[in-house]
Amino acid sequence: MPAALAELSPLHEHDTGRLRAHLQRVPGPRSRRGRWYPLIGLLLICVCAVVSGARTITEITEWGQRATTTVLEQLGIRRHLPGRRRAPSHATLTRLPAALDGDALDDAIGAYLAGHDHTDIGGTSSAPRPAIAVDGKALSGSAHRTQRHRHLLSAVTHALTVTLALREVGAKTTGTAAFRPLPEPLDLAGTVATFDALHSVKDQVRRLVQEKKAHCIAVIKGNQPIASAQLKALPWEQVPVAHTASGTGHGRRESRSVKTMAIAANPGGIAFPEARLALRIHRRRQESGKRRTRETVYAVTSLDTHQASPADLGGYVRGHWGVEALHHVRDVTFAEDASSVRTGTAPRAMATLRNLAIGLIRQAGWTNIAAATDHYRSRTDNALQLLDLEI
Question: How is the chain split among helix, strand and coil, in percent rounded to 5?
């Protein structure tokens, strides 16, 4: 496990890869009186069900009702008295995610996923440093009457697109206070953190570089008007193209060219902290049956020329958008935007369970998440093995 992605929790060495050990750190929200099922068992039912494609609390309940006694016992659910339900009811599983400590659940699951090596699995990344994208997603279905939709901020690996940290920020925001708790559980020394224009916040970039010893690549647009104007005014016509790349996929062909320029991080340079290099990325995209489109993106990075090549820098910027593929999976395969769960921490908890399921499936080598959920739905023993459990 690379140090840059190591989790910092005080678990015993042989427990760092065990999901059950991490979930034990989530405090129970229920009174001891009248409690039939252990919290770990309920959480593991939820995880197994979501890995098997469950989209709603009802589908999670149905998965538990279909599970055999052997499977439930392996998850920690045992029949206490004759005639009692052998699996938790819909009401129990509805109340649980709404009452959970969202930060504790996110930290436990993020630490578990961070305890795996994401840099070399399946040869998915050729970049010299591990990279993490910081991006947000609105939970559209969580809005109701006067209640605004919830907004989650995530730290997601470029390779495999696994979510290592997540925080709820209430509404779409660029405030520094919303960012500060996000990277705290992670050792980011030596990693590259990438930001889109919305989340390119000066104080956060400064803190990541100075305190967390990470490197940053921040896309600059109109929300940073001074830095944006300065970047566009640089003499790019005098700079040769340093790297080009092209590819096809999803019915389109795209080509990219990268220019880089050294800049001084002072008042005479670019008005953005820790900026060492400026990037100009020009994209050309041709979709079948449509006109060709062109786009120019400007960015700054704390990396110097000897720390990353133009090809590496272009790869980091392109890799950032892998987080959109993760959001697409949550919306399409797990119907996240259609979810009407709104009570308490339930919207966030369900999103966290989906992130865990996707991370587990990615680490198992699957590229098609929908196909994987179909597989685990009919092969419960394989789902248990995915969770480091066995029948």
Answer: 40, 20, 40
Query: Alpha-carbon distance 168 to 179, whole Å?
Result: 10
Q: Tell me phi and psi for residue 119, to 5 degrees.
A: -90, -25
Per-residue CA distances from 136 to 88, 152, 327 (Å): 33, 5, 9
Q: What is the pLDDT of residue 141?
A: 67
CA angle 337, 338, 339 (to 5 degrees): 95
At 81 the three-state DSSP class reads coil
Q: Which of 223, 196, 158 is nearest to 297 (CA)?
A: 196
The answer to whether 215 and 192 have CB atoms below 8 angstroms apart is yes
Helix H segments across 101-236?
Answer: 102-114, 176-179, 202-210, 225-233
pTM confidence score = 0.85
Distance between CA 84 and CA 131 in Å, rounded?
49
What are the two backbone dihedrals, phi and then psi, of residue 35, each rounded to the nearest 5 degrees? -90, 120
Least-confidence region, from 184-188, 229-233, 255-259, 371-375: 184-188
Asked whether 212 and 180 are in contact (CB, 8 A), the reply is no
SS3 390: coil
Phi, psi for residue 160 in degrees, rounded to 5:
70, -10
- With 0-12 / 13-18 / 19 or more C-beta atoms within 10 angstroms meaning exposed / middle / buried, residue 193 is buried
Contact 260, 307 (CB under 8 A): no
Q: How confident is the model at residue 160 (pLDDT cuts 50, 70, 90)?
A: confident
C-alpha to C-alpha distance for 92 and 60, rounded to whole angstroms:
11
Tokens matching residue 73: 């016992």
Q: Which amino acid is at 143?
A: A
> In whole angstroms, what is the distance from residue 246 CA to residue 205 CA?
30
In SS3 terms, 305-330 reads as CCCCCHHHHHHHHHHHCHHHHHHHHH
